Amino acid sequence: xxxxxxxxxxxxxxxxxxxxxxxxxxxxxxxxxxxxxxxxxxxxxxxxxxxxxxxxxxxxxxxxxxxxxxxxxxxxxxxxxxxxxxxxxxxxxxxxxxxxxxxxxxxxxxxxxxxxxxxxxxxxxxxxxxxxxxxxxxxxxxxxxxxxxxxxxxxxxxxxxxxxxxxxxxxxxxxxxxxxxxxxxxxxxxxxxxxxxxxxxxxxxxxxxxxxxxxxxxxxxxxxxxxxxxxxxxxxxxxxxxxxxxxxxxxxxxxxxxxxxxxxxxxxxxxxxxxxxxxxxxxxxxxxxxxxxxxxxxxxxxxxxxxxxxxxxxxxxxxxxxxxxxxxxxxxxxxxxxxxxxxxxxxxxxxxxxxxxxxxxxxxxxxxxxx
Length: 371
Hints:
Radius of gyration: 21 Å
Helix content: 25-40%
Shape: globular
Structural class: alpha/beta
Largest sheet: 8 strands, mixed
Distance between the termini: 31 Å
CATH topology of the largest domain: Rossmann fold
Number of domains: 2
Number of helices: 11
CATH superfamily of the largest domain: Alpha/Beta hydrolase fold, catalytic domain
CATH class of the largest domain: Alpha Beta
Strand order of the largest sheet: 1-4-8-5-9-10-11-12
CATH architecture of the largest domain: 3-Layer(aba) Sandwich
Strand content: 5-15%
């Protein structure tokens, strides 16, 4: 019988000291929401940090009380899985700027007693990693066996490797990039403009009146198109009709793919904050690691790397992961590049469970033996 994690509770830690941000401003303190699975070994050498993607959160695995949907990476985290909780202590925290328990624009500004809204300062991937390090330090972990994440999570992995190489035994960036291309920035900007064009956005001050649902829904619909591939959309939807005939109006969806996108957009509005959408997408656009960030003479990379990409991913094309691997090789790092032949597009990092499990499990076992 398959062992499962069961019921998991999200925890939180409050840091009362000011947190200086890269934009030059500071937060008077931050709350970090996180979940942990498994147990630390006596040497505290089996800890793995999972960094979530743009719309993810701390709930990576197991079930919350009363819910029937598991965490977003439950297929990879748990007893006997890629991140084997019988062996490893796995941590996942919600990024600052988010809306799932960590401090973000929907949090209460202690100065005004109201939600920050656009008074919340801009955050970067570096700021997110800085706060994650505070969490890891508070948990008493001196060195991480691995940091792993896909998409924006992969950016955090790379930022960890640059900012805190001495704290990493290994790093697994998946379907990510050293920096956003103009096309990636363009998709984010269209999403932001959709949110801000909604009259209900009210300049970010909508917390008393309700979300800018239409704008946020459209932004999410656009995002979902980029997450899939042409082939996966053809296989999933083709030109299937919702009701076996055309509606001949613009209100009801004619095609299955239209209904799917509307459903995804409506679902997203119920669980995500519009201002967090703006702040986090902008943080991804700001992200840029240059060769000199890795190639500085004062940094010796002892971290082992497993870089994973997917052939059909056109949002974060494989060439961007190849650039990461090439840069690491130039530095002399122990880096392995794997490209999975998947048709799922960018969503493959959530769906190619069997192949990712095989790669990650073997990589971690080898890394753990050398601790």
